[in-house]
């Protein structure tokens, strides 16, 4: 996707073959949220995450997206923590400035602490740079840490653990060379596949 794309634009996602992805008998058993979207607002809110959320909603899924931003305190807000806990899985959109936000890193660490299945989307970053905290991604992390000791060693260790974990997961690499509609379609289908598989695994389909 071109970084210069109008932030207010939306992308039409071609319809898939069927509009129903979950057996009817499972609908009443679902958690409050099917997908928790973790992202850096300045990088991807308008150009990627919002179109993805809207597309998932048109497919009958319930994505959670923090529309207001979480940089208002020192810890994850209770509502966000509850959303993580009560989501079937997470999609972590890892972008160049993701690691310069302590709130994004707290969120990512919490996702792993809750043992959630995560679909990584590496948006204009390479998984190895995320895993090793290097390149533009690593630079943002170092700038966030600064020269002070305002973060505890345990806290920094937890963040590094989360970044190593997400960098080791086979995910979806999204860069400027991608065809926008095709990339969105593939990502949505991947998300739907994981959600359906997970809900079937956890709850089972009583119709079979």
From TrEMBL:
Q: Where is the TIR domain?
A: 31-192
Q: Which SMART domains match?
A: TIR (SM00255)
Q: Which domain of life does this protein belong to?
A: Eukaryota
Q: Does the keyword Phosphoprotein apply?
A: no
Q: Which Pfam families match?
A: TIR
Keyword annotations from UniProtKB, A to Z: NAD
Which biological process annotations from GO are given for this protein?
Answer: signal transduction
This protein is called: TIR domain-containing protein
Q: Which organism is this protein's natural source? A: Beta vulgaris subsp. vulgaris
